[in-house]
Amino acid sequence: MDIQLQFKKLTASFSLWVKEYKHALRVIAGFIFVLALLTGLLWVSGKDVEAITFVLGLLSSLLFSLPSIADYLLPSRKPIRHMDYDEILKFIETTNENEDWKLIKKAWAGEAFFKRRPTLTH
What we know:
This protein has helices at residues 3-20, 22-44, 50-73, 85-94, 97-100, and strands spanning 101-105, 110-114, 117-121. By secondary structure, it is of the alpha+beta class. It folds into 2 domains: 1-78; 79-122, no CATH class. It has a 3-stranded antiparallel beta sheet with strand order 1-2-3. A hairpin with a 4-residue loop joins strand 1 (101-105) and strand 2 (110-114). The radius of gyration is 21 Å and the shape is elongated.
């Protein structure tokens, strides 16, 4: 598999993960922001914590912006468990039968499982 395709799949997976846990990411970002604010006050009072304040501020900014970046990268896609019936049917049409699905055949029946979310079958 070529590197560009692997990067796209990794980016899509990460973006979906961020969309799934965006509330938790914002809570963590808020906590880190408060730490950055406190270290900033220490820095203003004369303590040598400028680097720590900078890193905490940068980290909180990154965590606050991740949901927006994920929405930009995958604007119309949301995690499967949040999709309704019609969205799941449209999503299945966009997948690759050979790469994204695992087919299990029995003598009397067969079923396909979505590799990234085995609870999705058809």
